[in-house]
Amino acid sequence: FYRTRTRTRTQIKPDSVNSVISASAAHLLRLHQRFQFLDKDSRGSLRSEDLEAALSENPIGVRIVGAFFQQETVDFPSFVRILAHFRPTEKNRTRDGVQPDPAVGRKCPSSVAFQLYDQDRDGKISRTELLQVLREMLGLQVTEEQLQSIAERAIQEADLDRDDAICFDEFRKSLEKVNIDHKLSVRFLE
Amino acid sequence: MATRGRSSFCRSLPELELLLLVILVLLNGTVLSLEAASSSEIHTGEGNNTSKKPFPVIGIMYDDVSVPFEISLWVLLASLMKLGFHLIPRLSNVVPESCLLISVGLLVGGILKLARDEVPPVLSDRIFFLCLLPPIILDAGYFLPIRPFVENIGTILMFAVVGTLWNAFFVGGLIYGVCQLAQDKYSEINLGNIGILPCLLFGSIISAVDPVAVLAVFEEIHINELLHILVFGESLLNDAVTVVLYHLFEEFMESGLVSAVDAILGLVSFLIVALGGVLVGAFYGILAAFTSRFTSHTRVIEPLFVFLYSYMAYLSAEVFHLSGIMSLIACGAVMRPYVEANISHKSHTTIKYFLKMWSSVSETLIFIFLGVATVDGEHHWDWIFITATLILCLVARVIGVVGLTFVINNFRIVKLTTKDQFIIAYGGLRGAIAFSLGFLLHTDHKKIFLTAIITVIFFTVFVQGMTIKPLVELLAVKKKHEAKRSINEEIHTRFLDHLLTGIEDICGHYGHHHWKNKLNRFNKKYVKKILIAGDRCKEPQLIAFYHKLEMKHAIRMVESGGGSKLNSSFPSTVSMQNIQPKIQSPPSARPAERALPQLTKGREEEIRQILRTNLQRTRQRLQSYNRHTLVVDPDEEGFDDLILKKRRMMELDWKIKEMTNYLTVPHAQGSPTMSRTRMASDSQAYVKPGAKGVPSIQIDLASPQSPDSVRLLDEVGHDQGLTMSLPSSSSRAYKTGGKDDDRDHQKLLRCLSDPGPSADEDEDEPIPT
């Protein structure tokens, strides 16, 4: 136990992490334990394969890993920083309005979701990107035609400026009923 | 001039109704007195057996039909009242319907009492609990929005259980204190005689928020979903608490002795009542889902299964003194996803409308009977008791809500603001359940309890019901978004679910999403295979949702466009010779039957017009009476606007396509739909236009894309009940794509009439050229 604690102390640099998010030591410890659990080879950083193993059953697992863990390896501070995007922050606690939290460097949750759709980062969700998402989610259970008609309809509904793709504002607008900001919060990370 | 005439007519309507009302009531009275007269006539008839009576040409035998007759009169009265209120717009905006109905009930009760000096015991507990309450609860349970309900289940349970307990004990205890303080040995009813247990019993009756009243009032104020589901969910789930407390205190009153063991038994009993009710409901729900799997050949009785199983769930729960309401809710909520996947679209519509109709009538009747029952029955008005009750109820509710919210907000992501708390507290309406339970009491102080209960009900319904709407406006509480669920929302919600499940998996946190994911997986793997018929068990929910949307649009399209809109997407359709064999075309179109392709342009257009108008008329004529024939109702929302828009677009389309519409030439640049149907029918290879087969037609938002919707009908067509199936297989014999499309066209028209046996009955010989 003592060894684990020293390892914790040497491996987490509290300042670098705490400057980004203010989390209690208990939370950090939990996350660190999880980090170590995922880090099968005990190398002190995670590779994408480790994370994909955790997300094997998730249809969009690869996408999540790809979007968040962009570097080859992820060390603990980055791990925490990325997960901090999903923390329920104070500002998000009321249902009215949501602001990005610039002080924390935390992105607005809807832009996080948008990035997951928009793999090529051109700021728009094109039909092919949407088709890819649908294909991943629905898998082999549907025919290609059905996928295409769904994608077509989705774009037709959301696309207001007729550019055949969904830009970020249109994305937000189509989701105004779904309270995305409070949905994208995981309690664990408070 | 015209407007004044209209307004005078409107003003006379309330008088008309009042007149109608009086007539109905007098009819009731006279009929009943005639009953007495006729019975005496029979006696005198028997006495004079020997003398021959002339043959009675007209006789009155009211006895035989008295009960159904009276029931029908009451229901008719309720329905007419409902009609009448909406004809007086000013009134229905200010006063919620429930208040008006209670007033009408009071009026009718008063008239009946004056006329016959006694009022029929209409709100007996049997009628209420067995006939009037179940439809409302089933309607609520079947259409319960599962997602917000489950997301807020913790909060709802806290309010329902802890809140109701708090209310019961607070009110019961303090009213006992008040009674003791205000006892007056010389008055008619000595308040001090009321023991603690009757007070607690009274408290438990009066503390429960009533689903009927909440529904009636909240429906009109269109509040946002979260608040609606919180108050409504609470009103549904507190039934278990009420049942347990009621029986508990009644038992204690009988035995007269309370011990700690009894309290623990009470707790155990609560768990049994609540969970048992849910299990019974779920069991019947699964049975119903399983039954619906086999109904593909007898679509007409599908709704009946839904209703019967739900009612059985309710009755079975009542047999064991479990919570019937929770059982009904569980049954409806469990069976709905599976039943909807199995039944035909028409059965779904039937279920929806029957439930709405029954629950609406029930609700109306309940309020009217509440008014009538108030006039009946003995009351004892005691100022102290009643005002104390009222104040205590309000105070208890406020304190309860504030206290609980304070605790709950620590566990919620989206906190409840003060405005929310106020609405929740204010929305705690009491209703007919409290009254019926009070009716069932056997204590000596029934009269005073009943009076107090009625006063509280009236206060909450009238005062709180009337003022909640202005208050909602004043406080600018968020209202419900009226927009329908779009495919985008569905896609993104699922995406976010997967995303959050993934994040939770990364964190190793077994949270909300993790368990939901597990449940979905289990559902998909095992349950759906058992409960859903045929291929649809593998259909992911997104697809099912999409199909539903497309079906609605397709129906709307066919209804409003009369099939002509279809023509614009199948540019070479409506070849003259292929329209008629199944449809009785009127003689005027018969020359077109044998028309040869070489028609002049003008003549062609003329014939098209004739056919178009006649097709619409014929379709209406097809609605012949047949017990098995159901006619599709168009989707009502925005229907008229849609028709106008479509008509205008159709004219435009006709003008554009007129020049290029030849009869039998297949178009090279048709929609992928058409090319696909043609590919199915033609053996010759056909080059698909466009790069990836993505439809390239300009679609305007007023009419959701028709080619895709019709194409999708193809995929859905395997199910027997969905008669809008386009034949894709047996079209080998067809030479041109045009004929194929006409088949589809006819099919779509025919689907309006027949839900019944195989939808493929016109797949016989190819149409003769």
TrEMBL record, chain A:
Domain EF-hand: 113-140, 146-181
Entries under Pfam families matching the protein: EF-hand_7
Biological processes per GO annotation: protein transport
SMART domains on file: EFh
PROSITE patterns: EF_HAND_1, EF_HAND_2
InterPro entries: Calcineurin_B_homologous, EF-hand-dom_pair, EF_Hand_1_Ca_BS, EF_hand_dom
Keywords: Calcium, Cell membrane, Cytoplasm, Lipoprotein, Membrane, Metal-binding, Myristate, Nucleus, Phosphoprotein, Protein transport, Repeat, Transport
PANTHER family, alphabetized: EG:114D9.1 PROTEIN-RELATED
Organism, scientific name: Xiphophorus couchianus (Monterrey platyfish)
Full protein name: Calcineurin-like EF-hand protein 2
Subcellular location: Cell membrane; Cytoplasm; Nucleus
An MF annotation (GO) of this entry: calcium ion binding
GO cellular component labels: cytoplasm; nucleus; plasma membrane
Sections of the chain in a coiled coil: none
Family designation: Belongs to the calcineurin regulatory subunit family. CHP subfamily.
